[in-house]
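Form 12-C: Joint structure prediction
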Amino acid sequence: MARSQVVSAASDDPLASWHEGATKRSIVDFVTRVTKAGGPDYVAPAERIATFDNDGTLWAEQPFYFQLAFALDRLKALAPQHPEWHGQETFKSALAGDLPALFARGESALAEIVAATHFGITTDEFEAIVRTWLATARHPKTNRPFTEMVFQPMLELLAYLRTNGFKTFIVSAGGIEFMRTFAETTYSIPPEQVIGSTGKLAFEMRDGTPVLVKLLDIEFVNDSAGKPVAIQKHIGRRPIASFGNSDGDLEMLQWTMAGTGARLAMLIQHTDMTREWAYDRTSPFGRLDQALDEAHAKGWTVVDMKNDWRRVFPFE
Amino acid sequence: MARSQVVSAASDDPLASWHEGATKRSIVDFVTRVTKAGGPDYVAPAERIATFDNDGTLWAEQPFYFQLAFALDRLKALAPQHPEWHGQETFKSALAGDLPALFARGESALAEIVAATHFGITTDEFEAIVRTWLATARHPKTNRPFTEMVFQPMLELLAYLRTNGFKTFIVSAGGIEFMRTFAETTYSIPPEQVIGSTGKLAFEMRDGTPVLVKLLDIEFVNDSAGKPVAIQKHIGRRPIASFGNSDGDLEMLQWTMAGTGARLAMLIQHTDMTREWAYDRTSPFGRLDQALDEAHAKGWTVVDMKNDWRRVFPFE
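Section 2 - Result
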């Protein structure tokens, strides 16, 4: 009887994939404080805004960003219509599958690949293409659909916050329209709560029907100092909790913590080379260096994936 | 007994300020159809997106846009710090209160005034300035606070839609941060559901504290073809109902109506020179010309303010 009660209590834990310890306690303590009516740290539900980075925070980002995998697949599909690509080193490396050569060309080369594969079609067409890709593409290491490469403890955290009256937003450098195709199904985050990098759009009439066409121009890169700017633009309130994993999240966490009242800033450190990946200060994708120093200096919560997470992926 | 039942029924009407007739019926019929579970026009709650213009749709916009009234007041307050303004015709007319001369200089002159009075301060400072202004400024004709110059039937419509599972958004050419200062109190629309024109923002550290500074550059004008673009960017779903009053709302209504399933497009025509104002095809503010033709041609709902609204303002 006592035993079955313990089992039942454990399975009722909304954060069952988090080991007991300081990290889990920092989450539960924060949520308890801000939701305690009449307490000194109480926050009205409308102000309970929580923002999450996506790559490396809600889903994996190795061996390279998943949206880049999409762009590379699409580049191959589009190559026959673009003979000029074969004369350009960036495109040549990408089409040959020579990823080390491509990555050596730096972030701007990757941005070029993404831009070239994301424009000239309508928003409806783009959404259909991404949906088809997500349904068929597989992660190079696990051979799983990319939408299964999400972190079970973070899914629980999202649900736990929402149960406690939080509104959860994605604030990521990923493309806004790319992420929206799966955020609702995968994270229960509706499109209007997904904030990402954007390209320019043009409103056009085609045979009397309005369409929105994706243009080549990058409009906004939602990373680093761009994140607080985008939060202001899209949400118009300062989050009381923010979750990231890389230097690109530092300003979002600073902006969050600079508000008054109870606050939670959390960084996920990828420390698990067996179940996921281990990387931080020197990784080309999701580098965590300056933000880690600031987290330690300011006492922000740092998740040690290996020791804080009982389970990493839902499929384990 | 019968009489008291009639009274009671009337006061229970969520759209009590709308006269019975075709206009009111078009609203109720639409909402009934999209919320009828199992019906042919049923729309899941997550897809029940309704977008509203603000100036001339939710509140009045005569004798000129209220945000311009704010900008003119602020211009006077800032003038001592800007001796150079006295050499510029636009600023000179504005500071002298010569509104006909100012308006004769066209929309770009007004944009110049707005830009000059909205930049160089942090978002927090700007919010505080607008709040103070709204608490003290008065409408030139009615001598009421501007936030009382809202349309009672539209307040009822917003509430009616939300009661029926809709998410209501403002999509207006007004400044996003200007509107957010009053949208939650006045319309029960939270900041994250207010979409407007934006200026560029810069993230800066001041004595170790992050701030967002409003820059002079206009980033996005949320009018005409900009509205569907902003809807895509901020919401990521196509609205099923849209409400406007001027040519600047035409593309938003076209975008809304081009989706599949039940749809509602509504234009408010200002026909009441006694209780409000009467203007349409030639008004410098809120011109309704091309959109009115298209509404008639396509059978969109056109509100005749004089005959469709039992009450215009809450204070009547």
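Section 3 - Comments
The beta strands of chain A are 49-52, 167-175, 194-206, 209-220, 241-244, 264-271, 278-279, 301-304. Residues 88 and 94 of chain A are 10 Å apart (CA to CA).
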